[in-house]
Design brief:
The strands form 3 sheets. A 4-stranded mixed β-sheet has the order 1-3-7-6, covered by helices on one side. The protein has a two-stranded antiparallel sheet with strand order 2-8. It has a two-stranded antiparallel ribbon with strand order 4-5. Helix 1 packs parallel to helix 8 and helix 7 packs parallel to helix 10. The protein is an alpha/beta fold. 51% of the residues are buried. The chain starts with 11 loop residues before the first strand and ends in a 14-residue tail after the last helix. It is built from 10 helices and 8 strands.
Length: 293
């Protein structure tokens, strides 16, 4: 993925400590497809802010990754490559959605904030820890990300790839787009009234819509700046096939319980990401229409 020349967002706050992170970017290990599998596999993003969390705990066997040291900031500016990458991808989501959202949704786009942290921090949705993984808090309209989430996957699974990291951020920003549309509040209210099965189904629809919106972002980002390189989309499709609830449940427990799905099946995740990626239209991401799943 070509990202070095992208604009850096001014809406990122770096709360990390000092030192040296050593979080490599670019292609490496088993490739971007596998890291997307691992990054998305544990996400339990739901709607309740307390469960809008990531999958580091699942990936790490229930333990938070070790605190990672990162370079000191100079004058408030992030100086390490991983932090700069996050700022540029966030900037690119702003550039895309500030154009797409008014045209397709008929309203102005207000970008979210991204907070980078180490080990733990506070959000309006409560405490944030590395074990939670990346998550979006609708109460303060902020994405929270500990970059050691990616380093842990590299260390334990030998995976890496910059498009996978960008996808993680774009998916979380997709939840912000849902929030801007007024969707999250409505779904959360419905979840409070629903039984467990229906609440899970609503969560699946929210997650698949965020996958689709990440595809919409990738479509327009590539249209504007040709950010995707050969093989990126194909690897993302292969990853989506492996991160469905059905495959994850079969791998972890040997059988599948569809009523407990919270993110969608492999087929659904591939289909919805590619729906956004092929058409670039928000309206095509409406997973809440009857029989859309």
């Amino acid at each position: 993925m070509r990202w070095q020349d992208l604009r850096t967002s001014q809406y990122m706050e770096d709360r990390r400590g000092g030192g040296g992170s050593g979080i490599p970017l670019g292609r490496g290990g088993l490739g971007i497809g596998t890291i997307i599998i691992l990054a998305l596999a544990g996400w339990a993003l739901g709607i309740d802010p307390r469960i809008l969390i990531g999958g580091a705990e699942m990936i790490g066997g229930g333990h938070a990754p070790q605190t990672q040291q990162v370079p000191q900031q100079r004058g408030g500016e992030t100086t390490d490559e991983a932090g700069q990458f996050a700022g540029k991808i966030l900037g690119k989501t702003e550039d895309v959605w500030k154009q797409v959202f008014p045209k397709q949704a008929g309203r102005e786009y207000s970008p979210p904030k991204l907070i980078l942290f180490s080990a733990g921090t506070r959000s309006r949705c409560g405490g944030a820890s590395s074990a939670m993984g990346p998550f979006y808090c609708p109460l303060d309209q902020t994405v929270y990300l500990d970059l050691s989430f990616f380093q842990q996957m590299q260390r334990q699974f030998r995976v890496g790839g910059d498009f996978a990291y960008a996808y993680v951020i774009a998916h979380e920003v997709g939840h912000h787009v849902e929030n801007q549309l007024g969707l999250l509040a409505r779904v959360q209210q419905r979840q409070r009234e629903a039984g467990e099965m229906e609440a899970n189904q609503l969560s699946v629809r929210v997650e698949l819509m965020a996958d689709c919106l990440a595809g919409v972002w990738a479509f327009h980002s590539n249209q504007q700046y040709k950010t995707l390189e050969e093989g990126d989309v194909e690897e993302a499709m292969k990853a989506a096939e492996a991160i469905g609830d059905d495959r994850l449940q079969r791998r972890s427990q040997g059988y599948v319980v569809p009523d407990s799905f919270t993110h969608g099946s492999s087929e659904q995740r591939v289909r919805w990401f590619m729906t956004g990626m092929k058409g670039g239209e928000i309206r095509q991401c409406d997973t809440f229409r009857e029989n859309q799943l």
